[in-house]
């Protein structure tokens, strides 16, 4: 056994800040001078340095100075084979897929290309402070194999699976439901729960899935109930109309997945921009999760996700945040928080009565406002809860995996350090409120240059030059 200590300033969460209206700091935990004791990649103890250090004489301690250490970021929705084409110009979802995305994803049939793409993908995640992701691969098993293999070598927590699509895509990209089922069975046996890999049964979206493909997904879920289900839902108006044409016996998008028994715990639907109130309530009741992807929703012109509706305490929906790279034009969850805040503020204005008094809903308007507590909870412990992996990671609770990020709150744009001196003259937080305010500036003014170090299972895998 190998035991190490990490000393520094720590900030994490023990509860959901949306449950603590007006007192969100009660959901957070802050140690100005803390100690994280890690044995073989698992957190053994966590608390104040002065309290714990004496109980662990002789252990090697790495002191990370002048940084705020937070749990590793969790990206709930991202596309491995779009790494090279992020930021493709000028189209909404469906033509963008045809023009820019499918031609690139087809290349991942080639193992050498897929292998290089995977390495670049995981390098970019670590540089952005992301230690866990739920990722789409491609319709070829090669991409899934290479992702799980490389993630295993780095000991990263990854949820992924073969992406199923059998219509509304190029002929050389789609595959049959029979092949999808056969290849998925093999991949589940080979990778699910092997190391830190977790398998997601992955119909790309209902617009690209025939009833037979969704029946194959249903059969896989019945045979492997501990697997995840990862897909898209209600992203774009043209897509939503197309889904009901493809599946005319269903009344709404969620109903397609419900028909085939896919909706429930461990189900993630990315985007959810056009989910109805009924769909939100049904997702809440079933334990399904939605993934908020603001960067992509804005970049592709898809629309504004109703964050305040998803966080309705009467029908709360589990939720993680995602970059949706390459629809999202950044790898960084900090950029996700930046755009999520702006989406929330637009929603807030539309609901506060200043535009249309008839639509006024003061409580929902407030729930759209993304404070630093709500934001950083959403990309750490909240994201873990949304993906049903909060028993494994998401905060610094003993027994969990030691994935974390050291943030330089003064890095990023040239103006950042001077701005931060308004909050803490010496640039260091002394209270939980100061830490939260510094982190808000990281998410709104900073960028991935604020990520100084990224650690996975107690080992540093990234250090900014």
From TrEMBL:
Question: Which GO terms of the molecular function aspect are on file?
Answer: guanine deaminase activity; zinc ion binding
Top-level taxon in the UniProt lineage:
Bacteria
Annotated GO biological process: guanine catabolic process
Work out whether the entry's keyword set contains Hydrolase.
Answer: yes
Q: How is the cofactor bound?
A: Binds 1 zinc ion per subunit.
Q: Where is the Amidohydrolase-related domain?
A: 68-460
Give the pathway. Answer: Purine metabolism; guanine degradation; xanthine from guanine: step 1/1
Q: Name one GO cellular component term.
A: cytosol
> PANTHER family, per this entry?
GUANINE DEAMINASE (PTHR11271:SF6)
Q: According to its UniProt record, which protein family does this protein belong to?
A: Belongs to the metallo-dependent hydrolases superfamily. ATZ/TRZ family.
Q: What is this protein called?
A: Guanine deaminase
């Amino acid at each position: 056994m190998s035991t190490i200590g990490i000393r520094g300033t720590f900030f994490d969460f023990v509860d959901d800040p949306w449950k603590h209206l007006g007192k969100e700091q009660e959901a957070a935990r802050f140690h100005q001078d803390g100690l994280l004791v890690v044995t073989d990649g698992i957190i053994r103890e966590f608390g104040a340095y002065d309290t714990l250090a004496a109980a662990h004489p002789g252990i090697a301690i790495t002191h990370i100075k002048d940084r705020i250490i937070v749990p590793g970021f969790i990206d709930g929705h991202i596309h491995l084979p779009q790494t090279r084409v992020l930021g493709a110009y000028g189209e909404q979802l469906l033509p963008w897929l045809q023009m820019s995305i499918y031609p690139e994803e087809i290349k991942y049939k080639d193992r050498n290309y897929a292998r290089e793409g995977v390495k670049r993908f995981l390098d970019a995640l670590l540089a952005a402070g992301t230690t866990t992701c739920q990722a789409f691969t491609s319709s070829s098993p090669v991409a899934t194999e290479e992702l799980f293999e490389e993630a295993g070598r780095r000991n990263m927590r990854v949820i992924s699976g073969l992406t199923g699509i059998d219509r509304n895509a190029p002929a050389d990209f789609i595959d049959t439901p029979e092949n999808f089922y056969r290849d998925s069975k093999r991949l589940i046996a080979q990778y699910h729960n092997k190391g830190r890999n977790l398998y997601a049964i992955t119909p790309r979206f209902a617009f690209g899935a025939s009833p037979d493909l969704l029946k194959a997904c249903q059969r896989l879920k019945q045979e492997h109930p501990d697997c995840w289900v990862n897909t898209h839902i209600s992203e774009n108006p043209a897509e939503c109309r197309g889904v009901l044409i493809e599946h005319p016996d269903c009344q709404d998008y969620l109903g397609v997945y419900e028909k085939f028994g896919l909706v429930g715990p461990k189900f993630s639907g990315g985007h959810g921009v056009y989910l109805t109130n009924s769909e939100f309530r049904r997702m809440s009741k079933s334990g399904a999760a939605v993934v908020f992807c603001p960067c992509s929703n804005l970049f592709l012109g898809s629309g504004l996700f109703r964050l305040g509706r998803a966080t309705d305490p009467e029908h709360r929906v589990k939720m993680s945040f995602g970059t949706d790279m390459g629809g999202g034009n950044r790898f960084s969850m900090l950029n996700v928080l930046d755009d999520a805040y702006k989406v929330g503020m637009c929603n807030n204005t539309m609901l506060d009565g200043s535009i249309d008094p008839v639509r006024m809903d003061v409580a929902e308007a407030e729930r759209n406002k993304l404070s630093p507590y709500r934001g950083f909870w959403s990309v750490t412990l909240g994201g873990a809860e949304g993906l049903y992996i909060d028993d494994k990671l998401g905060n610094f609770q003993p027994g969990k995996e030691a994935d974390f990020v050291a943030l330089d709150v003064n890095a990023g744009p040239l103006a950042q350090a001077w701005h931060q001196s308004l909050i803490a003259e010496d640039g260091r937080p002394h209270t939980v409120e100061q830490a939260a305010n510094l982190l808000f500036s990281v998410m709104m003014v900073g960028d991935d240059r604020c990520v100084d170090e990224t650690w996975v299972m107690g080992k540093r895998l990234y250090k900014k030059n």
